[in-house]
Design brief:
Layout (H helix, E strand, L loop, with lengths): L1 H31 L2 H29 L9 H36 L11 H32 L23
Helix pairs in contact: 1-2, 1-4, 2-3, 3-4
């Protein structure tokens, strides 16, 4: 069970690392590249991040059934609830907020950098962008808590004194 749990942790850690990297890369992109190009690049990367988060959350939800009998019911349901929050945040970020931002951008009719900061559409775009940031932060926080829940899980009541760390024969027995 521990090996399986480690694979689940790895999936979660890869997505969480990608999300953290995305936050830094997005800020750098707007300093280095033209604003419209940076926005397109960040939008594409956010799409990949949202779809990846949704896939990881669904996969971890499905695999939470494996070995569930040996796990504390309370923490198992907390984990599942947080995975649902991760999935919902990715779906909302991609399909609601993303479409909303694209719609506002299309209504502007010109590049965002040419729109006055006092323009009502620009103000609305900035507000929706703030929602996007909060949604990603919510997904990242849920993923981080799930990471700690899974990593602190106890699988056996009493472990042998001198357990062989590389003995995988016990990992796959029911």
């Amino acid at each position: 069970m521990k090996f399986f749990s480690d694979i689940r942790l790895l999936l979660l850690a890869v997505w969480l690392g990608a999300a953290i990297f995305f936050v830094g890369a997005a800020q750098v992109a707007f300093r280095v590249v033209q604003p419209e190009q940076a926005g397109a690049m960040v939008g594409q990367n956010l799409t990949i991040l949202n779809y990846g988060g949704l896939c990881v959350a669904v996969l971890l939800l499905m695999t939470s059934i494996v070995g569930a009998a040996k796990i504390s019911r309370f923490w198992l349901w907390v984990e599942r609830f947080l995975l649902l929050i991760l999935a919902a945040a990715c779906v909302v970020g991609q399909f609601v907020i993303g479409f909303w931002m694209d719609s506002i951008r299309a209504q502007m009719g010109r590049p965002l950098s040419e729109v006055s900061p006092e323009d009502p559409l620009r103000i609305q775009f900035n507000t929706v962008h703030q929602y996007s940031e909060w949604t990603l932060l919510t997904a990242m926080a849920a993923a981080l808590v799930v990471f700690f829940i899974i990593s602190n899980r106890k699988f056996a009541v009493a472990a042998p004194e001198k357990a062989d760390v590389y003995d995988f024969s016990k990992e796959f027995k029911a």
